[in-house]
Amino acid sequence: MQKRELVPGYSISPVIKGGWQLSSGHSLNQKIEDQRAINDTTAFIEAGITTLDFGDIYTGVEELIGKSIAKLRETHGDSARDLVQLHTKYVPNEKFLDNFDRSDVKTIVDRSLARLGVEQVDLVQFHWWKYEAKSYLAAMEELFKLKSAGKIRHIGVTNFDVERLSEMVDAGLKPASIQIQYSMIDTRAEAEMSQYCLDNGIGILCYGTVAGGFFSERFLGANEPTQVDTRSSIKYQLIIKEFGGWALFQELLKTLNVIAKSHNTDIGTIASAYIVNRPGVAAVIVGARNLSHLESNLMIPTIKFTESELGAIAEVLGRSKGPKGPVYYLERYNDEHRNIMHTNNN
Questions:
Q1: Global pTM value
Q2: By three-state DSSP, how is residue 306 classified?
Q3: Which sequence spans correspond to the domains of the chain?
């Protein structure tokens, strides 16, 4: 898979393997098998999807990635670390934000390095639960100190809006990337964020491109589910509601199904391929639990849409009702969306 340059001198795969689905906090009724997850992760890396996204609050995942790197060392020796780009997060507990302690940053980053068994992580992505607590710039300053110390190669942010992102840039704390929810049914990024990132050289890393699995033939022509098995499903069912409801979503699935057949692939691949080609987007994050979608994931950057295909998609998206507002606003301030989150996992 041909890599894309995120910042000068640092390139990533345009399809990133996400780790949230491997967290014990993600599934409501499924247990993750460690050895299978390790084997699957190394298979993705060796197939060309070499960038891994996970987080300090994804229970058990940093340890799994560390074990995957150890497994790679068995076959690749000291060069194993160079095969992968490791993207973790720093997510302080919401209850600590009003009395933020700068030392927390180093404590959590050092813990991530220990879990991973590495001396440097390639990208630490910073999330902050509430803007009313004003210490997010202080946290960024501490992350940049750790970058200067060699513990972090690059710093990113996740789920900030343009107003806060511009504060960072103006303070000389420009991140290399921003990770945000961005999909066909959630185009909040296109209001301001995409252009701001293009203007300032900040790469957009997108999660939610397959809406927690709703972009699938499994849901084509199906009734809206009344029971789901993951927190992702709950989350994206709410986004479908904001988009315009199940009936409009079905129209989008029908359109994507036609396009998918013309490219000999599936609906989820088309949904991710559409986003990876949007302005400012550096990569999409695919939440693959296992190898069943590896082949289709490898196809994502290769899909080239015709003008008629893009027109058919635009016609359906033009009838969407939302979601509206800045990125992550609903998740911060709307109880229905917010209550899905675990805000005190560190």
A1: 0.94
A2: coil
A3: 10-338
User: Please, which residues have CB within 8 angstroms of residue 261's CB and are 6 or more apart in sequence?
Assistant: none
For residues 215-241, one letter each, b for 16 or more C-beta atoms within 10 angstroms of the residue's C-beta and e for the rest, the string is: bbeebeeeeeeeebebbbbbbbbbbbb
Contact 183, 206 (CB under 8 A): yes
**Residue 3, beta-bridge partner list:** none
pLDDT at 341: 73
Looking at the domain 10-338, which fold is it? TIM Barrel (3.20.20)
* Residue predicted with more confidence, 232 or 237: 237
Among the residue ranges 15-19, 252-256, 315-319, the one predicted with the least confidence is: 15-19
- Residue 33 has a pLDDT of 57
Residue from 93, 155, 156 nearest 130 by CA = 93
Write the DSSP string, 215-274.
SSGGGTTPPPPS--SBHHHHHHHHHHHHHT-HHHHHHHHHHHHHHHHHTTS-HHHHHHHH
Is-contact 196 164, C-beta < 8 A? no
